[in-house]
Amino acid sequence: MPLISSVKNSKGALVFSTNINTEISLTGEKAAVIRLVVAVKRKLQLYYWKSREFKELGPELLLPDTPRSIEWNDESICVGIRGEYLLLRTNGDKKELFFTGRIPEPTVSSLSDGRFVLSKDDMSIFVGPDGISFEEKVKWKEPPSSVVEDSPYLVGVLPDSLEVHSFEPWIQIQSVEAIKVKHLCSVTGKRGVLFAASPSQIWRLTSIPVHVQLPALMSEKLFGLATKLATMSDEPPEVLKNQIQRIQSIQAFDFFCQRNFKDAMTLFLQLETDPSHVIGLYPDLLPESYRSKIQYPEELPFLQGKDLENALAALIEYLTEIRRSLQGNVKSLSGPSPGSEGTHGVKTKKQLLQIIDTTLLKCYLKTNDALIASLLRLKDNYCHLEETEQVLIRYSKWGELVILYQNKGLHRKALELLKEQALKSPDLPLGNHMRTVSYLQQLGCENLDLILEFSDWVLCAHPSEGLKIFTEDVQEVEYLPRGKILDYLMRLHPHLVLPYLEHVIYSWEDTSTLFHNKLAIGYIDRITRLAIGNQPGFLSDFVGLSPIPDSEEFKSMCSSPSSVTSLTSASDSSPLIEYKRRFQFLIETSSYCSWEAVLTHIPKDVLQEERAFILGRLGRHKEALSIFVNTLNDLQGAEKYCSREYVASSNGKDVYVILLKFLLDLKDGSDGQSYLEEALRLVDSAGHRIRPEMALSLLPDGVPVEHLREYLIQALNSCGSERNLMTLLRGLLQADFLVLKHQKSSIESTKIFLKETNLCCLCQKKFTNQSAFVRLPKGLLMHYSCHQQSIQQ
Predict the structure, then answer these.
(1) Looking at the predicted structure, is the pLDDT value of residue 518 above 70?
(2) Which residues, in sequence order, are bridge partners of residue 116?
(3) Which DSSP string do the residues of 119-166 spell out, in sequence order?
(4) Deepest in the core among 51, 141, 157, 497, taking most CB within 10 A?
(5) What would the DSSP string read from start to end of 631-698?
């Protein structure tokens, strides 16, 4: 074999070590960097390989004694001298590590992860490139003379044997008899092959095949070592992946059997194990028919008490994390669990979520039942209906059962349960009828039939609260078809029609003529029956009635002696008075009622005042005043009516004239003189609202002038004031006319120069001789046609 190169200054070398690193150049090419340290007496010589020879890397490093063992890792060189170990950096820094103990010669070895292995007494201590010792230590039967790594094992040379230890866990695996072995080395780039040498022999050591070692390691529950060994196998990647997954799955199962539930669930989560197989580890969480198909490596542990509580807590955390990952990942965990045999896993994401949510609910029942409702309320809740239903019934979780039915859209079942519980006993969890009311309020238009069906028993037993099913100020209730609800109430609960209509009109401001008419007719019917005694006048008649909105005008009207409210004190709560008050308020405020139609429903002998108000709304003031004067004989009420209509109605300017005519027509009989006096008093009090020519034409010729003195003075003053006002207004208009006339003359006198270079400011074209044009106030010129187009736009 030809000599390639030699190190000239290395004569008398005692020990040496190489350091080989791979670097990537700027072009992406890999290159090996080889460095060499040689110990000559008490000096360390550093070299690097270049151009097929070793060249000096730097100055020599001095040592306090002759080195007996040396290793180079990265930028650190570990040296064993007599009695102690040193750590040197390539820049010359030096650090003392520790003493060698009672071993005759120091031994230094290096590991593939960059650490050094140093022997002290019967132990091997691991030291990092920074000189910091690790807690792990390997204990040998005797002090080793040499230590070599053959991952995942560490082999030490003892006086009469070779001892094999594993990394993590640090345990002895094997002892091989070998006498007087002086040297032990590994083969670079090849695992599982070592060479040992004695003064007279050389041995080749080979490791047992991985597929033979794995079962033995797993039987000893050395899962970490088995996983490391499996990663070094030469199997195809897919086979290797399945092999490692199977080892770790059995390890997770072993964690579970050892009551290390948290680590077990963490490993199951990392392995993406089929959740159904994990749930099967627990009793009573999977259907027995499904669970019996799953086979596990060993018999499952019996869990009870604190162990069961801790196991369920770990399972809840595991399932919650699985659920979160599934929500954002279309891929489902569908493969069979490597740690179990005999069945295939769940195939679809929906099946997985169904099993997970159902199991979570069962876990909450056993650990913290307060969380059940929040789980069932989730929009994406996948609890299995039949199984969850059975479990909740078994534990008497009626409120949660209602939530389940509601979330699954089984509203009939939920409402039947609520009704059953409420009618059975008020002491039950769902015994309050308001639970049914709240439930019905949330259903919306698409479930109107159910709402009407199950509201019946609530309206019968609790009419005031039951009416909130149709009047609560929530969107679902407000958008219900009001016509159908009105028909339903009229058929089955007529006593609630009025409060419902009042809420629709006053709270929701509904403008439907139908509802306004129905409310008016309802008032008429109720008042009529109360008036003739067909209905007892109890306060229960008011149940559910809405408060009348504030109206200053109506309050003023109600304060009139002619108003119904004058018949009783303000504290009077008689149903008849209350309904009359409400009917008058509707007459006063509703602009959507068909009063002609309502008028036909008023009986002849009742509600005369209300009839008069309605006639007034229709502009039929003569008929309205006839009722006040001829039927009710209420002259003060007639005056109040005239005062209100004169201000409120555009066609009510002649109401006082109509009333005056009625008063003067009542002159026959014994009271004829008194009505003339009432007519004269009306002329005096409201003369400013009666045109003089009309009043004078109606009054009898024999009325003394002195009786009309105040009225005539007032009329003349009013005419004079009006004439002065007209004169002033005429003067102002004349002044405005003169100003505008002057402005017009000024504008017309302005000269306009139209040149050939002038362009239309809109179309930017020139003006021709035949073009009509427009001059804008700012002086801009425009074609007449363009101006017309701009106006239209």
Answers:
(1) yes
(2) 110, 127
(3) EETTEEEEE-TTSPEEEEEEE-SS--SEEEEETTEEEEEETTEEEEEE
(4) 497
(5) IS--HHHHHHHHHHHHHH-TT-TTHHHHHHHHHHHT-SSTTHHHHHHHHHHHHHHSGGGS-HHHHHHH
Rounded to whole angstroms, how far apart are CA atoms 651 and 648? 9
What's the pLDDT band for 319 if we cut at 50, 70, 90? Answer: very high
Q: Name the nearest CA neighbour of 595 among 519, 650, 654, 655.
A: 519
List Cβ neighbours of 430 (8 Å cut-off, separation of 6 or more): 398, 399, 402, 417, 418, 421, 422
The predicted model gives 625-650 an average pLDDT of 82
The Cα 446–Cα 450 span in angstroms is 9
Helix (H), strand (E) at residue 775:
strand 773-775
Quick check: 122 and 129 in contact, CB under 8 A?
Answer: no
Rounded CA-CA distance 480/450 in Å is 12
Average pLDDT over residues 249-278: 89
Cis geometry, peptide bond prior to residue 236 (ω within 30 degrees of 0): no
Q: Would you state the pLDDT for residue 564?
A: 37
CB neighbour list of residue 164: distance below 8 Å, 6 or more residues apart: 153, 154, 155, 172, 173, 174, 175, 176
Task: Report how far apart, in Å, the C-alpha atoms of 478 and of each of 312, 441, 504 are.
Answer: 46, 10, 9
Which residues make Cβ contacts (< 8 Å) with residue 469, sequence separation at least 6? 437, 440, 441, 451, 455, 458, 459, 477
522 neighbors 516 (Cβ within 8 angstroms): no
Q: How many CB atoms lie within 10 A of CB 162?
A: 22
- For the chain, residues classed under CATH 2.130.10.10 are 8-205
User: CA 755, 761, 764 angle in degrees (round to 5)?
Assistant: 80
- How would DSSP label each residue in 20-76? EEEEE-TTS-EEEEEEEEEEETTEEEEEEEETTEEEE-S--EE-SS--SEEEEETTE
* Adjacent-strand bridge partners of 335: none
CB 760 within 8 A of CB 786: yes
pLDDT in tens, 444-472: 999 999 999 999 999 999 999 999 999 99
* DSSP assignments along 534-556, one per residue: SS---GGGGTTPPPPPP-HHHHH
Q: Give the residue-averaged pLDDT of 476-486.
A: 94
553 Cβ contact partners less than 8 Å away, ≥ 6 residues apart: 588, 644, 648
Nearest to 227 by CA among 209, 212, 246, 208: 246
Please, which residues have CB within 8 angstroms of residue 350's CB and are 6 or more apart in sequence? 382
Q: Is the dihedral of CA 97, 101, 104, 107 positive or negative?
A: negative
Q: Is the pLDDT higher at 700 or at 514?
A: 514
Q: Decide if 459 contacts 467 (C-beta within 8 A).
A: yes
Q: What pLDDT band is residue 312 in, cutting at 50, 70 and 90? A: very high
pTM higher than the cut 0.85: no
Q: What was the pLDDT predicted at 540?
A: 44
Q: Please state, in angstroms and rounded to a whole number, the distance separating the CA atoms of residues 109 and 157.
A: 12
CATH homologous superfamily for 8-205? YVTN repeat-like/Quinoprotein amine dehydrogenase (2.130.10.10)
| pLDDT given at position 336 | 44
In angstroms, what CA-CA distances link 497 with 254, 342, 487, 531?
A: 71, 67, 9, 19
Q: In sequence order, what DSSP letters do the residues of 295-348 get, joined into one string?
A: B-SSPPPP--HHHHHHHHHHHHHHHHHHHHHHHT-S----SPPTT-BS-----S
Burial 329-365 (b: 16+ CB within 10 A, else e): eeebbebbbbbbeebebbeebebbbbbbbbbbbbbbb
Q: Omega before 152 cis (within 30°)?
A: yes
Residue 475 has pLDDT above 90, yes or no: yes
Alpha-carbon distance of 451 to 414, in angstroms, equals 12
What order of strands is seen across the sheet that includes strand 183-187?
183-187, 190-197, 202-206
